[in-house]
Write a sequence for this structure.
């Protein structure tokens, strides 16, 4: 293709035939060089994150930087925070139609378009970070995820993980299942469905409205991410709080979305660079959250008087039962969700059996006196 | 530089006198082309793994393939199994002196040269895979690891993780600490030191001699990796065995070693490609082991009559106490080890506090009835 273009341009230069013959090689080179310069692939990355949002937003920024630098500038990705080019929840559509060539967000935001997508962020009482990564990359997960997104002209990849998210902030203690009765809690996705099953009222609010809603008492509780993000978000200032460990997002995967045509138009090496940069971002975010959550948690407890409490075992058991019912219902409502749920269950049974004698046995043995 | 040359030549295009110059340019281009061809960077990767060794050896192969493909052939890495170019335990020296430009193995193999290196593979009752990755990439670990290797002209990177390794294969049940008395067990590194403290006899054998030693009774027990590798290695055939969960290598990091001059001679984009390919390999191996260990474990139990047993809690407690003593001794013997141990302890206290309310709380809550 380059060659054809070259000859086309040479014809326009208007040189004599002899010159062409004599210098054809040289010209071809020149033009190839000029073309190479013109060939910088300018990509837009739209994200669901506020500007400079710690961990999630900065993870997207770092991914763009990696792609730009690893490609030596052949790809130039410019990142847009939520609302800068399109609103947060239009990222999926914007990349689908090619307004942007890539996006960064989380798959469960798109459950209205593809209910099965939510299995690829987090499932209540489902996979930990290590488990969901293994399912996606070695358990058939990615193939299913690609199948879900193909009709939308999109290619998904795992692009970050928060680890176990906290169960949330509550303005009262949760001592029994009855304490969930009528509880108005900001909790999106599958976790919200589970809360509804145990008598609560899930409320879906964008991040920017959480603080005020807590302060005015419009909601009694909220989940957000984990100590690192929750501290940065200042939630502890909104009321006196009890802070509980998590059950509903035990290893939330962030996603990079690529416009299928844009991705497939890349030469093979750039495709592999994009894939490796994304995989690197996926690992990097978990490493960051794992390192930074504890200091933030200590600050919340020691400087901001947040009370850390565990849910009682019978509450967790009831939430677990309600979670299984919720997943069964989601699966029954949609053939693709059923297919993904079957894979999730099969892989889940195996990986839990393995982690019973490895991760879990070890992490408990380590705490023995 | 490219830009200057290009415009310089374009200015001459079409002029008779300059045609010669332009044609000279052609010559120069050809030469540049030849040079470019000659510029393929041929690297050798020596490894500590037998040819086609599942997970660890194939992980090294995949890393080479990624570098080759992501660089579009600008780097060409050829992989050598243990013994093909240098013996397994000469990988460190071979890369240090530049016989090979990179290596793949595990840092604790080099404890004779740099005792502090062993903290970067696995520590008894130390970090899980998720924790060691976070320490290395976000807790100051990598900087220390680089400091240890700098005098050897080497740059280390994390390049794979097995997850929690099994505690090993025993020809009798371990019901109390007394059962370790006089037990001859193949167990290298810090785990071996700990075994010695509780009365056992650690024996260091290369992989190839384990099977026969078990069969003849020269050793009573061995650890290797985990079900996926142990099944492939056929250990279950050597005797009637009890198989125990692990404590001594709770998330073993494999390493890629780069010759410092070779790595630093790469242009920036290739350096970043090598780093991302290595980070990808690091994640990929853990995903693979996490996905494949369970089936192998089930095969061992159900088809090969291996008995899976937990160590009693008091045995684990004693091993943990002996582990801490061992680490204190290693640290006291060498200033660099002390520096690394201090970082390990500080990060460890924080990450365990966080995992107490996240990973551990969750993984236990998930198993509630």
């Amino acid at each position: 293709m380059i060659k054809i273009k070259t000859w086309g341009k040479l014809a326009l230069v208007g040189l004599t035939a002899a010159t062409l013959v004599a210098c054809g090689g040289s010209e071809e080179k020149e033009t190839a060089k000029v073309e190479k310069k013109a060939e910088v692939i300018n990509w837009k990355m739209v994200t669901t994150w506020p500007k400079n949002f710690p961990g999630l937003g900065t993870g997207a920024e770092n991914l763009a930087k990696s792609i730009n630098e690893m490609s030596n500038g052949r790809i130039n990705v410019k990142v847009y925070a939520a609302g800068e080019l399109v609103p947060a929840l239009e990222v999926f559509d914007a990349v689908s139609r090619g307004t942007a060539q890539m996006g960064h967000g989380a798959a469960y935001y798109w459950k209205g378009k593809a209910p099965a997508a939510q299995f690829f962020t987090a499932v209540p009482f489902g996979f930990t970070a290590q488990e969901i990564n293994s399912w996606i990359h070695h358990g058939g997960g990615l193939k299913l995820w690609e199948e879900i997104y193909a009709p939308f002209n999109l290619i998904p990849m795992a692009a970050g993980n928060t680890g176990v998210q906290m169960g949330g902030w509550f303005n009262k203690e949760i001592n029994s299942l009855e304490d969930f009765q009528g509880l108005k809690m900001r909790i999106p996705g599958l976790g919200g469905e589970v809360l509804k099953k145990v008598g609560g009222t899930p409320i879906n609010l964008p991040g920017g409205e959480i603080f005020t809603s807590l302060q005015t008492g419009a909601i009694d509780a909220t989940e957000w991410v984990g100590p690192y993000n929750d501290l940065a978000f200042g939630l502890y200032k909104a009321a006196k709080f009890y802070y509980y460990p998590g059950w509903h997002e035990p290893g939330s995967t962030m996603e990079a979305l690529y416009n299928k045509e844009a991705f497939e138009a890349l030469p093979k090496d750039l495709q592999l660079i994009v894939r490796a940069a994304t995989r690197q971002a996926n690992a990097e975010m978990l490493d960051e959250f794992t390192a930074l959550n504890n200091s933030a948690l200590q600050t919340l407890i020691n400087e901001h008087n947040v009370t850390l409490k565990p849910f009682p075992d019978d509450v967790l058991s009831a939430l677990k039962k309600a979670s299984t019912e919720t997943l069964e219902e989601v699966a029954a409502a949609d053939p693709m969700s059923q297919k993904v749920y079957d894979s999730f269950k099969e892989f889940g049974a195996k990986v839990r059996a393995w982690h019973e004698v490895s991760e879990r046995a070890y992490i408990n043995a380590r705490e023995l006196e």
